[in-house]
Amino acid sequence: MTRQTLIRVLRLVASLPRRALLLVLRGYQLYISPMTGPTCRYYPSCSQYAVIAIQRHGALRGVLLAGWRLLRCNPWSAGGIDDVPPARPHRHRLTHVASSTS
């Protein structure tokens, strides 16, 4: 297995949780949400917020952001426009390590 093939396989495996969560959310949006009518106090709706958060931040942080949003969506909330925060820039640094042949 070449290095590039290994990297592709690892990226696919790493994207599986995100894809599974997005599939569940899309199913909710298509089949369950139309039966309840428009009830969200915020824009975008809570399910669309979750989709954007997971796409932008990944599975773990996206679920945390969506959960926090659901906790804020209650009858005592004023609602309004609530955008997903922008993604943080990556802080990874690639450093070259010189190999010594001594």
Which descriptors apply to this entry?
102 residues, mainly alpha, two-stranded parallel ribbon, 4% strand, elongated, membrane, cell membrane
- First CA to last CA: what distance? 30 Å
Secondary structure: number of strands: 2
Helix fraction bin: 55-70%
* Main sheet: strand order: 1-2
State which percent range the strand residues make up.
under 5%
**What summary fits the major beta sheet?**
2 strands, parallel
Structural class: mainly alpha
What Rg do the Cα atoms give?
19 Å
Give an account of the 3D structure.
With 102 residues, the protein is mainly alpha-helical. It contains three helices and two strands, in the order αβααβ. Strands 1-2 form a two-stranded parallel ribbon. It is elongated and about 55 Å long.
Give a quick rundown of the structure:
With 102 residues, the chain is mainly alpha-helical. The chain is 59% helix and 4% strand. It has helices at residues 3-36, 46-57, 59-72; strands at residues 42-43, 80-81.
Write the layout of secondary structure elements.
Layout: H1 3-36, E1 42-43, H2 46-57, H3 59-72, E2 80-81
Parallel strand pairs: 1-2
Helix pairs in contact: 1-2, 2-3
Organism: Cellulomonas chengniuliangii
Subcellular location: Cell membrane
InterPro entries: Membr_insert_effic_factor_YidD (IPR002696)
